[in-house]
Fold each of these.
Amino acid sequence: MGSKIEAEHYDLLTLGSGEAAKFIAWTIAATHGKRCAVIERQWYGGSCPNVACLPSKNVIHSAKVHQLSSHGEDFGIPQAHESGRSAGKTNMRAVVQRKKDMVAGLTAMQEGGFKQSGVGFIWGDGKFVDHKTIEVTNADGQKRVVKGDTIIICTGSRAIISDVPGLKEAKPLTHVELLELEELPSHLIVLGGGYVGLEFAQAMRSFGSAVTVIDKHERVLVHEDEDVAAQLQEVLLKEGVVFSTSTSVTEVSGTSGESVTVRGTASGEAFEVKGSHLLCATGRVPNTDNIGLEATGIKLTEKGHVAVDEWCRTSEDGVFAVGDCSGSPYFTHIGYDDFRIVNDSLSGMSTSEPRRSTRQVPFTLFTDPEVAHVGLREHEAQTKGIKYRLAKIPMSAFLRSRTLGETDGFAKALASAEDDTILGFTAIGPGVGELLPVVQLAMKKKLPYSEIVDMIFTHPTLSEGLMFVFGAVPPRS
Ligand SMILES: Cc1cc2nc3c(=O)[nH]c(=O)nc-3n(C[C@H](O)[C@H](O)[C@H](O)COP(=O)(O)OP(=O)(O)OC[C@H]3O[C@@H](n4cnc5c(N)ncnc54)[C@H](O)[C@@H]3O)c2cc1C
Ligand SMILES: NC(=O)c1ccc[n+]([C@@H]2O[C@H](COP(=O)([O-])OP(=O)(O)OC[C@H]3O[C@@H](n4cnc5c(N)ncnc54)[C@H](O)[C@@H]3O)[C@@H](O)[C@H]2O)c1
């Protein structure tokens, strides 16, 4: 080992304090009385409460409130300004402050979790220098070396900023900087029509920015069924978001925050758009390149994730990897499930049963309307040759959507052609993320879809509509 500093010993160490890591450390300290610590360079409790899920949803809610208030005349409320979207009128400072207040509360909550559990918090940048040995450099450049009998790697991922000429020099925003922006972009160009791109595109449009979304694929949300992506794109188009799909960006000039121009080709034709700000939302890379893995026997996959098995175990005994850096689907709730897997393993409950590859991966895209999904998508069933029965009903059949005046969207369910189990479910509509657990439970327990049809739902809740969509599944032939 290169370092001459004597290593401090822990029973369990985590590199990164994200979702899975903090729950593993808290639980192992509390239930097994072990000496545990997390190493973290930036944020108490990882990115979700600080710069990702929760702050973005806080800002998205502010955008919804802003949008509803700009339509106050629909509710008989006199408007101080012209109706419709009020470019330049949103007080972004207040929006950011509201978000900061929430984050401060969450930080206090995380700090409390560490204090209560007795888990040590080691601030600094961690790097493996030997097997199960990590050197931590703090902000003042001071180093300490720590060793763990068990190590959990949970270093997360970061936004990709590709090598397109001029892109890095343009100092584009990522979600991290966008969430701190106290000025309203006059024209935000969003590179990437995926989760991050669409959630922020709609929010910023609601605040009053002109927004252009650029995607290299022929449509946004390329992994979703075509009807789902088309429905959401239609809503956003109506709200004034401009799309340029099938677009290959070849050059960026200028500086985000001042003036920025993106050039390339769109469906083979020359393309150019000029805006005030540029957001990069073209996917994420795992933070595994600068953590000294070469000093260990820990292997990476081709995509740069830490290679793990069904129980989050790496190629080195006693070292686990969890969350985004391990290639688990990039969602906080999946990070939480990685915690459960490792906790079971550390509690001696590991079996030969697969865990990571067999779990449900539900998700909600927090646009307005939301997109919620679990299980098999229709196009996946078709590609895999899986026979299914389809039920699809408009969101307007969910009577709750009528009371909200938000009837855009639909719900569709895939039932097996062989038996009455549910293969998949997707909905696009107001708050449809809340519909998932009922369907998930039925799927997990392999219940026939008729169990949902036969339930008594309160009226008029959105979940009442589940009765109608599953009631529309055609009978088996
Ligand atoms: C804008 C945005 C919105 C999102 N919204 C949602 C959502 O609504 N729902 C959802 O489920 N998912 C959402 N996600 C995805 C979700 O945020 C991630 O999947 C999740 O946070 C990943 O957790 P993690 O523990 O793997 O990594 P992280 O939470 O990123 O934790 C990794 C931690 O490791 C630290 N670290 C890294 N390297 C080192 C090192 N060398 N030394 C010390 N510390 C280190 C980092 O500082 C970080 O705190 C969103 C993502 C983004 C970008
Ligand atoms: N609500 C949620 O749960 C939520 C919200 C935000 C993020 N996330 C997670 O974070 C992950 C990352 O989100 P993301 O939006 O950064 O990635 P993404 O993979 O969801 O979308 C990236 C988009 O960028 C496009 N793209 C890629 N390279 C491009 C290029 N050079 N030019 C133009 N377009 C390009 C892709 O076609 C794709 O549509 C998601 O996959 C998701 O797991 C979840």
Amino acid sequence: MTTPNSVVSTDHVDLVRSGRYLLSDITLHIERGQHWVLLGANGAGKSTLLSMLGAFAHPTHGTVHVLGHQLGRVDMRELRAHIGHVNPRHRIDAPLTVRDVVLTGLTNTPEFVPRWAPTAGQVARADELIASLGMQKHADALWPNLSQGEHGRALIARALMAEPQLLLLDEPATGLDLAAREQLLTALDELRVAYPSLASILVTHHLEEIPTTTTHAVLIRDGRVIAQGPVTDVLTTGNISECFDHPIEITRQRGRWVAQTRVPETVG
Ligand SMILES: Nc1ncnc2c1ncn2[C@@H]1O[C@H](COP(=O)(O)OP(=O)(O)OP(=O)(O)O)[C@@H](O)[C@H]1O
């Protein structure tokens, strides 16, 4: 099903590699302005699903529409230019400044494309995005000298450079200390307010890393969806325990979630 507001629509999708079903029967519908969290244990298939929605992999069976284009009937490289994909493990080896790295989001390349130069307007937009992620102090800093948290925020600015309608965030808080994680989550909440038609999917296995502005959740286990829908309906003690195959109790405080092992009640 695709509607004028559809950003992602998958219909009974399987993805098979080396004879193994990495994803099975995935049917998902994501609209503009929705912010999804994709949760699952190690090896559940989260990155595989994200790589398909990021136009890096085709489904083996079923159909996938991203931004109105059906995978298999569209130039994947061209489609990728409209999707912001943030992977904190993304390597940048060239000694570029933060501003330069953000500008490479326009060409979606690890370095500046030879003979390409940004316009004054593009540089101004890069600076605006850098500021909106609280990185203005670091705009001229060299990439290798930044911390992991600063890299994470700069990579989000980079992904937004091409004005994507879909933002994919693959474990953006990995390796961040407490303050850096909180700054990243605040930046994401602010971004979602600033760009109301943007849709996003954030992958994590930690409930503490879910931004308060998250609207929907999808839980996967062994490549299958076990629950999906509005975040408050999906993130329940029962669903999360099933997803991670462990008795987990979850609570929500001021919009954020906390998870801990459920201790069985003692009798008497
Ligand atoms: N090309 C491939 N061929 C065969 N199996 C693969 C291939 N790529 C990934 N897998 C397997 O698919 C499963 C899902 O991997 P995926 O990386 O999507 O999981 P994940 O949920 O992102 O896990 P994690 O939380 O550990 O990052 C894993 O068991 C992985 O080993």
